[in-house]
Amino acid sequence: MLQARAAERRKWARRERRALRVRKTVYGTQERPRLSVYRSNAHFYAQIIDDTSGRTLAAASTVMKDVRGQLKNGGNKKAAEAVGLKLAEIAKSKGIAKVVFDRSFFRFHGRVRAFAEGAAKGGLDFLKNPKKKDKAPKAEKPAKTEKPAKAEKAPKEKKPSEGKPKGEKKQG
Fold this sequence. Notes:
Elements: H1 2-25, E1 34-39, E2 44-50, E3 55-61, H2 65-68, H3 77-93, E4 98-102, H4 111-121, E5 125-127, H5 130-134
Parallel strand pairs: 1-4, 4-5
Antiparallel strand pairs: 1-2, 2-3
Helix pairs in contact: 3-4
């Protein structure tokens, strides 16, 4: 019992560290707000947040009546994609086209990825890694010059092995 509880505590500590790592790079502005997601076993939630003012600009989830009516289950990939499409529709109506994606402590696969694909299909422009935006584009490298072909080497001759072959045992 205690081991299980300790393992659960370590799991949540890892999740918190992962979330902090993600949030360190992701910051929502008025021009490009943060798109935050949360998934539970039964539902999927997403909101667009302006971190400068601390306001939620748009939100969608599988709990909403118009999304829930389309779905049998709120905790699968199809539901996450439907939430992505709905959030993109709401964001477009409020004039939001560009967002920074905040996956929190969730890995970018499964339902989180399905949501992101649905939102992108709905018309939201994602910036997945904000750090790459600030870096200047790399200068083009000069074309590589072809090296002259190396002369082929003659195969090495095997030296006759001294003593017994490896497979034989010493007789005695």
